[in-house]
Design goal:
This protein folds into two domains: 226 residues, D-Maltodextrin-Binding Protein, domain 2; 96 residues, Periplasmic binding protein-like II (D-Maltodextrin-Binding Protein, domain 2, 3-Layer(aba) Sandwich). The chain is built from 16 helices and ten strands. 41% of the residues lie in helices and 14% in strands. The two termini are 28 Å apart. By secondary structure, it is α/β, with parallel strands linked by helices. The strands form four sheets. A three-stranded antiparallel sheet has the order 3-10-4, sandwiched between helices. It has a three-stranded antiparallel sheet with strand order 8-5-9. Keywords: Signal.
Length: 354
């Protein structure tokens, strides 16, 4: 993450944050045994997962818990999970199927808290939903039913394979009687999908916030569906995880991280109906990732992981072939509930993990 443009705003940010989050006065940060902030490492974030880390950093939530985030540079999606296992990074975030596939290969890691979820029905702004499936309004596909009418295979963009795009698209296509034989996956980052859709190099783009604004600015987007109708709240499930080794050696740091990051996510949720606060969070994200942002994700107020939701993702991976039919991966292989207390106690404004 690149945090270059806002250093002159720290005082204003802290004062605003104190008012907005209900935190009154200053707090003494928890520190390590040597009195210094404890460093936790993660890759530099230039995608839609950036916002909570940015907010927790900008508003001092990590510092309050005695933590300092160290950004280790850009890490390609396929290398992120390995970077956690080899110790180059300490924490990551991923969908349940990514963790299940890693566990199938022998990876020892655990998710410690929920992050992204689909917003409740009461939140009507579709910009806050996890994904949009979009066609070019000037192209041949105007509805999902047009996929079966298209001559040959329909090229569909995806930012990575065996991801949320696969999981939700499998459900979507099955509901609409669309054979996967009609689909040709084209792997490219979300922002490149916008350009490819405009040039009609792909027929459908599947993008996440904050790239919705890029689609809207292009003036060619035709929304086929959004993610919440496909699988409810679980359609957006995203998890923070650490290696088993790190959790065993540094349980206090994990607890502090959970408190800080969930506080940041609640701040983002609370900012949604407040135009000034929402614009501020959007701008921080835009500064970090280098593209205009109209919205970020919606986050679980309750960070406790729902085992039944995770099992759905594992079962979906078996059905799609991402996991073998005889896979023995269980929810307990990729989830720990040891930090549930911190996922929820962190909602208290002045809570410091000890």
């Amino acid at each position: 993450m690149k945090n270059k443009k806002l250093t002159l705003l720290v005082t204003a940010v802290v004062l605003t944050a104190s008012f907005f989050s209900g935190c009154g006065g200053s707090k003494q940060a928890s520190t390590g045994k040597n009195g210094k902030l404890q460093v936790i490492k993660t890759w530099s974030r230039t995608d839609c997962t950036a916002a909570p880390v940015i907010v927790a950093d900008k508003l001092g939530y990590f510092k309050d818990q005695g933590l300092k985030v160290e950004y280790t540079g850009d890490t390609q999606p396929a290398q992120r999970l390995p970077s956690i296992l080899n110790g180059n990074n300490d924490f990551g975030d991923a969908h349940p199927n990514n963790l299940a596939i890693a566990a199938q290969g022998g990876a020892k890691l655990k998710a410690v808290a929920r992050s992204i979820v689909e917003p409740p029905e009461s939140v009507t702004d579709t910009h806050l939903q996890h994904m949009w499936w979009i066609s070019n309004k000037n192209g041949p596909i105007k509805t999902l039913a047009d996929i079966n009418k298209y001559p040959g295979k329909v090229k569909v963009g995806t930012n990575s394979r065996n991801s949320c795009v696969d999981y939700l698209s499998d459900i979507l296509f099955a509901k609409n009687n669309i054979s996967l034989d009609k689909i040709e996956w084209v792997q490219m980052p979300d922002i490149e999908q916008v350009l490819a859709l405009k040039k009609q190099l792909i027929q459908i783009a599947v993008v996440h916030p904050p790239y919705y604004k890029s689609i809207e600015d292009s003036k060619i987007g035709n929304i086929l569906t959004t993610s919440r109708p496909i699988d409810g709240e679980n359609g957006g499930t995203y998890l923070y995880y650490f290696s088993d080794k790190f959790i065993k050696q540094h349980p206090d740091e994990v607890a502090k991280f959970v408190v800080a990051i969930k506080k940041a996510e609640r701040y983002i949720n609370k900012s949604i109906p407040d135009p000034k606060e929402r614009a501020k969070v959007n701008q921080w994200t835009a500064d970090a990732i280098g593209v205009p942002v109209s919205a970020n994700h919606y986050y679980a107020d309750n960070g406790t992981i729902k085992d039944s939701d995770i099992k759905e993702w594992i079962d979906g991976s078996i059905k799609s072939g991402a996991l073998p039919k005889n896979s023995k991966v269980k929810v307990s292989d990729i989830v720990t509930h040891d930090f549930d207390k911190y996922a929820n106690l962190g909602s208290q404004p002045n809570y410091i993990a000890k």
